[in-house]
Every structure is written in C-alpha cells, then in structure tokens.
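[agent] plan:
  1. take the single chain provided in the ticket
  2. run structure prediction with default settings
  3. attach structure tokens to the ticket
  4. add a short note for the reviewer (M.T.)
[agent] executing step 1
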Amino acid sequence: QAISQSRLPSMEEVGLTPTWMDHKYTLRGCSRLGCWIEDNTSMKTIEEACTLDSQ
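[agent] step 2 finished; step 3 output follows
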C-alpha cells in the first residue's frame, strides 16, 4: 500500500500503536525495528518503537 507523500496517514489509520499517544507526532514509516515519527512541532524526524495493533 503506497503512502501518499502529500498526506501521511496517522498511526491509527495504518493500525499502529505508538508507545505514547500524542497528536503532534505523524507516522513517516515503519520497519520491524520501529517507526519513524515526525515531530510536527519541531519538524525533526525521530525513531520510536511501536507495536502492531492486535485487532
């Protein structure tokens, strides 16, 4: 499933649950090791572990 570059989906939309819930973060991509999250306030990209939703 291709992710549009113009609008990135939220973690909930792609079925991911971050280790914290904070709306200022946007999912950039995910690998088996973790997710790359964009901090919308500082515009920095950080890496944070995430888990697949069990549903």
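[agent] step 4 note for reviewer: The longest strand covers residues 25-30.
[agent] ticket updated
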